Automatic annotation (TrEMBL):
The lineage of its organism: Bacteria, Pseudomonadati, Planctomycetota, Planctomycetia, Gemmatales. Belongs to the lyase 1 family. Argininosuccinate lyase subfamily. Its EC number is 4.3.2.1. It catalyses: 2-(N(omega)-L-arginino)succinate = fumarate + L-arginine. This is Argininosuccinate lyase. Keywords: Amino-acid biosynthesis, Arginine biosynthesis, Cytoplasm, Lyase. Residues 365-433 form the Argininosuccinate lyase C-terminal domain. It comes from Gemmata palustris. Pathway: Amino-acid biosynthesis; L-arginine biosynthesis; L-arginine from L-ornithine and carbamoyl phosphate: step 3/3. Its main location: cytoplasm.
Length: 459
């Protein structure tokens, strides 16, 4: 019989250049475990409906386990003449069992087989990512608890804005990564629909039991339209979109910490184990892990564009273009997984330079907005209060002083009979204590959120 799974129709051999051009074994061999699991479930079902015997199913399942171990042990020789991992496993099975092995592909096509394997792999990848994101969240919560009483400047436009607690800052990233986990959870729910049994595109005339396979493989439901199945890559687009958002969050965090680790900011003490030096400048300590995390986000976002362009013009049912989906999916997962693996220990080992931060808190008028709100609370219209504080800031810039260093008379001019009271709101500590709103950086609010996250993340 032909070495090809489709060889009966052809009289001549495939050109070696075509074999090299069309092979995917160098990419999809990582699907071998999922192909074996899917094939074992399919074999059990074939026995249940009487298309093969129970003994044949047992032989197939046992032989597939052996083949899986041979792949793990590096004993399987991969060749481009067999195109992909699915053909390699099937040919190895036939070599062991002869005609019994040839019965495995009954009632299925490589079209529904491939997408089943890819969904099984993506489901496992999502579970792996959730664990990595959970660990990173815990690292940020641990940092929030360690640095809970430190006041840092908050920034907009990279300009000093208002004081915030360091714990509030760290917990902001916990929120971002929680949304990432929830997006992945949603993606997992949508992809967890069994494709197997759609066959090539129209289903099969054989009495297969798709519900049996669904239960064996842990899918939530069975795909309702066979024509939709083999062309569907929505789950891949959604998965890589989720990866792109994670990569974007990681990139923003990395950019912030690259800036904060400079001599100009000097807010962070990065661990030596996550930095590198210079081949010519002996004093350098470069944040290469952070820079690469920032840079690798481009690869992930590029993978999403790759997939969108790949599927944008495809007609229904399978087209060979779809073989190119795995390079993008696998690379995006590997990239994000690698970034997350180094992010958590980096966060845990990085310390705030408390003395440096504290020595500069008076710079930048971090208490100006609090002063404005103190005026508003005493009846001054918001826009009038805004202009008045702006004038006071300009006076400070001219005098090179802080707001609280201005004479009392200037505050009385702005808020007659309340000048002393509004001046008492100045200073970063007073400004911080003035916050009241839910979700703000108010110390009581931050303490609540920290306790909530510790409980939620089981810390």
């Amino acid at each position: 019989m032909s070495q090809k799974t489709w060889g009966g129709r052809f009289t001549g051999s495939t050109d070696s250049r075509v074999e090299a051009f069309t092979e995917s074994i160098n990419i999809d061999q990582r699907l071998f475990r999922h192909d074996i699991v899917g094939s074992q479930a399919h074999a059990r079902m074939l026995a249940e409906v009487g298309l093969i015997t129970a003994d044949e199913a047992d032989q197939i399942v046992t032989s597939l386990d052996e083949i899986g171990q041979e792949i793990v042990d590096g004993k399987m020789e991969f060749t481009i003449s067999l195109e992909d991992i699915h053909t390699h496993i099937e040919k190895a099975l036939i070599a062991k069992l002869g005609d019994t092995g040839r019965k495995l592909h009954t009632g299925r096509s490589r079209n529904d087989q491939v997408i089943t394997d890819l969904k099984l792999w993506t489901r496992d990848a999502i579970d792996q990512l959730d664990g990595l994101l959970l660990d990173l969240q815990r690292a940020f919560v641990e940092s929030a608890e360690r640095e809970h009483n430190v006041i840092i400047p908050g920034y907009t436009h990279l300009q000093r804005a208002q004081p915030v607690l360091a714990a509030h800052y760290f917990l902001a990233y916990v929120e971002k990564f929680q949304r990432d986990r929830e997006r992945l959870r949603d993606c997992r729910a949508r992809l967890n629909v069994l494709p197997l049994g759609a066959a090539a595109l129209a289903g099969t005339s054989l009495p297969i039991d798709r519900e049996s396979v669904r239960a064996k493989l842990g899918f939530d439901s069975v795909a309702r339209n066979s024509l939709d199945v083999s062309s569907d890559r929505d789950f891949a687009l959604e998965f890589v979109f989720c990866l792109s958002v994670i990569a974007t969050h990681l990139s923003g965090w990395a950019e912030e910490w690259v800036i904060w680790s400079t001599t100009e900011f000097n807010f962070l003490d990065l661990p030596d184990a996550f930095c590198t030096g210079s081949s010519i400048m002996p004093h350098k300590k470069n944040p290469d892990v952070l820079e690469l995390t920032r840079g690798k986000s481009g690869r992930v976002i590029g993978a999403l564009q790759h997939l969108f362009v790949l599927v944008k013009g495809l007609p229904l049912a399978y087209n060979r273009d779809l073989q190119e989906d795995k390079t993008a999916i696998f690379d995006a997962m590997d990239t994000v997984g690698g970034c997350l693996a180094v992010a958590a220990p980096l966060v845990r080992q990085t310390k705030l330079r408390r003395e440096v931060i504290a020595s500069r808190l008076d710079a930048g008028f971090l208490d100006a907005t609090t002063l404005m709100e103190a005026l508003i609370a005493r009846g001054v219209p918001m826009r009038s209060a805004h202009e008045a504080v702006g004038n006071l800031v300009r006076a400070c810039e001219q005098r090179k002083c802080r707001l609280k260093d201005l004479p009392d008379s200037m505050f009385e001019n702005v808020a007659p009979a309340h000048g002393t009271a509004v001046k008492a709101s100045l200073g970063v500590e007073n400004a911080l204590e003035a916050f009241k709103s839910y979700g703000s950086t108010a110390p009581t609010e931050v303490a609540k959120r920290l306790d909530e996250w510790k409980q939620k993340l089981e810390l």
